[in-house]
Amino acid sequence: MPNIQVNNISLYYEIHGAGEPLMLVAGLGSDSQSWQPVMEELSRHFLVIAPDNRGTGRTVPQDVETSIRQIADDCMALARYLGFSSFNLLGHSMGGFVAMDLAARYPDAIDKLILAGTSASNPKCNDVLFSDWASNLESGMDKMQWFRSIFNWLFTEQFFENVDAVDAALHYAVDYPYPQSEVAFRKQVEAISGFDCFEQLSNVTAKTLIISGQEDILFPPDASSSIVQAIPGAAFSVITHAAHSIHMEQPQVFTNHVLDFLLSNPESRIFSRF
Q: What CATH code would you report for 3-268?
């Protein structure tokens, strides 16, 4: 898969499937590969575009300056490079922050918007938690232990009952060939800190769906529902038996929600390339 030179980085991205464009924006510490559980099904219906956010995966350099707005600008530059004047957009967690920033600043470019496991602002308790994660990583904490401690915040209790699945997920994370550096993780944590776009959401014109995991303790359903108040006509859906990593823990249910939303009223906008 290719890289493009944009905004002082070499941005890696993957394209799967065919049809109307759907860009996926990953969350803190994650890259394009975090969408694997839902990629096959989504790409049966859409041209799926999945970039590695600045500071992650195969996008280099990893120690580049990072902010939510810069990640959003990278995504817009990628869409324009690919020739799309409008596209669907799905962001998870920090990727939801990016998606909201994009939809508020470029309302004509976003047709349908899906925000998963996110909120219009990052609470102070998350600022402290994410900073602690960064400090633990910088201290040289054993990677297996580090990922295990983070998994406790991402998944439901039921997930941990499947010991083999947990072990496989941990080894995948530890052995991942394109790991995020300590510096890059800290820069993303700092980009998240104090994020608040509630006032800007009135600019969003895209038809919007907010998806929340019923057991999400990072961005609980109550926090996610605040977006509904700010975006006119936004729909809200809660997925049971899921915590923060909704698309990893309940990929089929998550995909069903996404496709039901995106495939409804297909005549709402004609997608075009420049």
A: 3.40.50.1820
pLDDT given for residue 164 in this prediction: 95
pLDDT of residue 6: 96
Task: Spell out the residues 6+ positions from residue 254 whose beta carbon is closer than 8 angstroms to its own.
Answer: 38, 116, 211, 239, 242, 246, 247
pTM: 0.95
Q: What is the DSSP string of 126-162?
A: HHHHHHHHHHHHHTT--HHHHHHHHHHHHS-HHHHH-
**In sequence order, which residues have a C-beta less than 8 Å from that of residue 106 and are 6 or more positions away?**
76
**What are the structure tokens assigned to 35, written together?**
């969408």
Question: What pLDDT, on the 0 to 100 scale, is given for residue 265?
Answer: 65
Listed by start position, the domains of the chain span: 3-268
Q: How many H helices and E strands in the chain? A: 12, 8
In this structure, the number of other CB atoms found within 10 A of the CB of residue 149 comes to 13
- Measured in whole angstroms, the distance separating CA 39 from the mean position of its chain's CA atoms is 13
**Whose CA is closest to 100, among 14, 187, 208?**
208
Pairing of strands 110-116, 47-51: unpaired
Q: CB-based burial of residue 194 (10 Å sphere; 0-12 exposed, 13-18 middle, 19+ buried)?
A: exposed
How far, in Å, CA of 119 to CA of 194, rounded?
A: 12
Residue that is written with structure tokens 């698309």 in the block: 247
Q: Residue with structure tokens 């609470």?
A: 123
CA 49/CA 144 separation, integer angstroms: 30
Which residue's entry shows tokens 């994410």? 130
Distance CA 103, CA 120 (A): 12
Q: Which residues of the chain have pLDDT under 70?
A: 1, 265-274
